[in-house]
Structures are given as structure tokens and as C-alpha cells.
């Protein structure tokens, strides 16, 4: 027997009261943590982890499926099952009615949106109505007005286009300044005085640089906004139509953030509603959301942000007799090469997240 096996012997003995009967382990479809293969057998990160731990503790068990998160939570809290291995998040509300093992996976909430479409243009519109954009436009206008005023003052006695009525001359100066700044065409009625021509040369050269910098800044801002997506923080969810799975930890988070949402029984239901344009974003556990979108909804995408912090663990009824044994075995397993390979097999490059 290995050193690790000898070290686990006391905890295996502690779990023996439960090993005398067949445990009922609740689960629900939550790929890639719990799902059925082509033969109808359960597999996934949580399922494989439970099998690995149960084998070392000599536990007999069978899986029992529940349709929803709420049904699985109720089954654990009411003692209808002896454990739950799926993708259950540890929350304060759940901890009041059930027990949890050591967390085995840390994640957060992801946000799915449509690829393209009207919603995808919201970040662009947000940029054009942002304070920074308006500030840049007003700055350019102020400089154009200043140059136009100076041209009028320099030219009003030497150039008939800027003479006569003060308002007429001022408007002519500002118009020439705007045309010269934007390079919209050949600027008519150019300055004739030496100060006016010096100012005109300086302004035309400076305006080329100013416009180029302004356009580059706006292009960069638009690119960044499009890459970040319609949602960057929880605040952005308040201005769009949001969907979430009823009874999930996502609902608790949205409630604390005072964010309204449309409830759905299953993630697939919410993603179909998103695809149909009935909602603008769907919020759910990030790894589960990414898996479902990748497999079944290529028209959608998961934004590169993570909201909230979540921990997955095996759920147990209160006053159970095997939590300590499970914890010790889990802690040893989570540091093993087997666990690293299991995560990589299901999550690939996202296994380190």
C-alpha cells in the first residue's frame, strides 16, 4: 500500500458507517461537470471526482438525477439524497440548510451575448455619448472658434469677406477655420495680412495633427469597447434585458446588485431566448455557460469578463457522517496529477481558470 493509502486509512474507517449501505448521490446535467455520455452513463468533472474519492473510501453509491438546481438543493436539504455531485455553488443561503465539502473548483459568473446585432452596437453608442468623446469634440470646437475669431480680427480691415457687420465677419472667420481644420476642401477667402497668414499656416498644420490624434483616439476607444462587449461591469446589466436560471446562485447575485432579470428553468432555455432576441444577455456560471455556447450556440459568445466569485463543492445533508472523510480525501486528490489531467481533459486550455 502507498504512503497516501496508509495516510487515508483512518478516514476510510470513519466513512465505514456510510459504506454499509448504498448512498444516493444526486446530480443534474451541467456540462462539463455532469453529463451523460452516448451510453447513458454519467461523466464529467464532478462525477469523475466523486467516483475517484468514493473508490478510495470504499463507498457504494448510485446516481439519481434531478431536473433543476432548485430540485437538487431541495433533495439534499431534505435528506432525499446523501450527497450531490454536479456544479453546486457554495452560498450562505444554501449553507444554512446543507453542508459542503472543501471546494474543488473556483470560478465566477459569465455573460453571454449575441454575435453582432443591435445589442453589440451599444458599446459604440456608449462611446459616442461618453464624457470623454464630448469633451474632445467641444475642445476642437473651442479651438476652431478661437482661430476663427483671430482671423476675423486680423482681416476685418483688409479683407472684404470679413468686413462690415461684426457677426457676418465673425461667422466668416469661424467658417474658414472649420474648413481649414477638417480639410473639407479648398478654404476660400484666405487671409491677406501677415499675422493672418502666419496663423493660417500654423492652424492648418496643427489641425492635421489634432484631427489625426482625435480620430486615432476614437478608433482605439471603439475597438476597446467592441472587444470588451456590451457588459463590462455589473452596472451595465441594469440597462439591458437580462436572463438567468431560476434558483441558481446567479439569481442571488443579481438580486444583491438590484438587477432585474427574466428567469428560465434551464440554461439552454435562456440561451435560446437570447438567440431569438428576447433578452440582451444571459448570466450563468462561466464554465457551464462557455461549454453550452461552444457546443450548441455558435451564434452567441461569452464575454471576456467574470462577475462575482464562486466555489463548487460536493453538497451533503446537515449532520452527515462522511464530510470529514470526504474533505481529507478531496484535499489529497486536488493536489494529484490525476486531478490536473481530469481538469485538462474536460476544460482544455481553460483548466487553469
TrEMBL record:
Membrane topology classification: Multi-pass membrane protein
Ranges of residues in domain Ionotropic glutamate receptor C-terminal: 22-341
UniProt keyword annotation of Membrane present: yes
Primary location class: membrane
Keyword annotations of the record: Glycoprotein, Ion channel, Ion transport, Membrane, Receptor, Transmembrane, Transmembrane helix, Transport
UniProt cross-references to InterPro entries, sorted A to Z: Ionotropic_Glu_rcpt, Iontro_rcpt_C, Solute-binding_3/MltF_N
Membrane-crossing segments per the record: 128-154, 166-186, 198-222
Alphabetized Pfam families for the sequence: Lig_chan (PF00060), SBP_bac_3 (PF00497)
Location of this chain's protein in the cell: Membrane
SMART domains: PBPb (SM00062), PBPe (SM00079)
Source superkingdom: Bacteria
Domain Solute-binding protein family 3/N-terminal, chain residue ranges per copy: 22-350
PANTHER family noted in UniProt: IONOTROPIC GLUTAMATE RECEPTOR (PTHR18966)
Protein name: Transporter substrate-binding domain-containing protein
Source organism of the structure: Teichococcus aerophilus
Amino acid at each position: 500500500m502507498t504512503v497516501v493509502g496508509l495516510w487515508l486509512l483512518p478516514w476510510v474507517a470513519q466513512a465505514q458507517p456510510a459504506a454499509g449501505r448504498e448512498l444516493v448521490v444526486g446530480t443534474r446535467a451541467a456540462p462539463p461537470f455532469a453529463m451523460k455520455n452516448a451510453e447513458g452513463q454519467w461523466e464529467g468533472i464532478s462525477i469523475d471526482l466523486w467516483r475517484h474519492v468514493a473508490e478510495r473510501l470504499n463507498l457504494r453509491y448510485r446516481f439519481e438525477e434531478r431536473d433543476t438546481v432548485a430540485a437538487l438543493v431541495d433533495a439534499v436539504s431534505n435528506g432525499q439524497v446523501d450527497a450531490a455531485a454536479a456544479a453546486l455553488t457554495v452560498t450562505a443561503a444554501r449553507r444554512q440548510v446543507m453542508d459542503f465539502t472543501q471546494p474543488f473548483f473556483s470560478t465566477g459568473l459569465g455573460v453571454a451575448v449575441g454575435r453582432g446585432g443591435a445589442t453589440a452596437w451599444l458599446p459604440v453608442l456608449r462611446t459616442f455619448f461618453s464624457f470623454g468623446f464630448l469633451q474632445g469634440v467641444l475642445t476642437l470646437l473651442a479651438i476652431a472658434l478661437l482661430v476663427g475669431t483671430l482671423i476675423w480680427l486680423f482681416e476685418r480691415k483688409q479683407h472684404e469677406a470679413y468686413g462690415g457687420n461684426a457677426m457676418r465677419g465673425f461667422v466668416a472667420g469661424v467658417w474658414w477655420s472649420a474648413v481649414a481644420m477638417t480639410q473639407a476642401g479648398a478654404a476660400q477667402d484666405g487671409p491677406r495680412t501677415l499675422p493672418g497668414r502666419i496663423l493660417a499656416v500654423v492652424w492648418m498644420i496643427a489641425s492635421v495633427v489634432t484631427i489625426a490624434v482625435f480620430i486615432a483616439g476614437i478608433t482605439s476607444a471603439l475597438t476597446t469597447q467592441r472587444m470588451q462587449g456590451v457588459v463590462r461591469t455589473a452596472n451595465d446589466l441594469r440597462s439591458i434585458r437580462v436572463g438567468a436560471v431560476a434558483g441558481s446562485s446567479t439569481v442571488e447575485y443579481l438580486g444583491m446588485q438590484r438587477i432585474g432579470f427574466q428567469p428560465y428553468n434551464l440554461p439552454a432555455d435562456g440561451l435560446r431566448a437570447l438567440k431569438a432576441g428576447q433578452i440582451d444577455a444571459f448570466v450563468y456560471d462561466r464554465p457551464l455557460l462557455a461549454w453550452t455556447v461552444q457546443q450548441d450556440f455558435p451564434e452567441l459568445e461569452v464575454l471576456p469578463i467574470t462577475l462575482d466569485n464562486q466555489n463548487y463543492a460536493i453538497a451533503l445533508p446537515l449532520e452527515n457522517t462522511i464530510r470529514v472523510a470526504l474533505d481529507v480525501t478531496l484535499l489529497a486528490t486536488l493536489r494529484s496529477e490525476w486531478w490536473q489531467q481530469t481538469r485538462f481533459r474536460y476544460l482544455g486550455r481553460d483548466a487553469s481558470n
